[in-house]
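[Discussion] Sanity-checking designs against the backbone

I'm trying to build intuition for which residues belong where. Below is a structure token string of 96 positions. I'd appreciate it if someone posts a full sequence so I can compare it with mine line by line.
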């Protein structure tokens, strides 16, 4: 499903998939769940707090390899506290 809000530069695609991430200065990867993805960025859920402005490396590999794995760096734009963790939204700064 493609989501679109006229204020956004890129259309978002709903995509529920397991992923992993780590703060750029860190050594440890943490699990997360991708919520949606666009050409410009990503939204995902996780248990770790990540401050806005942080740079985070993300890895998404789909179980059915119809597309290549995504390895990228994002700048966190928003982190919203939810009852079950955090929703993180970020824009891509580098594709690897």
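Best answer:
Here's mine. Compare freely.
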């Amino acid at each position: 499903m493609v989501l679109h809000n006229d204020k956004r530069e890129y259309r978002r695609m709903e995509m529920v998939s397991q992923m992993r991430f780590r703060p750029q200065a860190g050594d440890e990867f943490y699990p997360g769940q991708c919520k949606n993805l666009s050409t410009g960025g990503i939204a995902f859920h996780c248990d770790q707090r990540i401050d806005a402005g942080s740079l985070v490396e993300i890895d998404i590999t789909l179980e059915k390899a119809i597309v290549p794995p995504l390895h990228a760096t994002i700048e966190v734009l928003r982190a919203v506290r939810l009852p079950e963790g955090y929703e993180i939204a970020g824009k891509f700064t580098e594709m690897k």
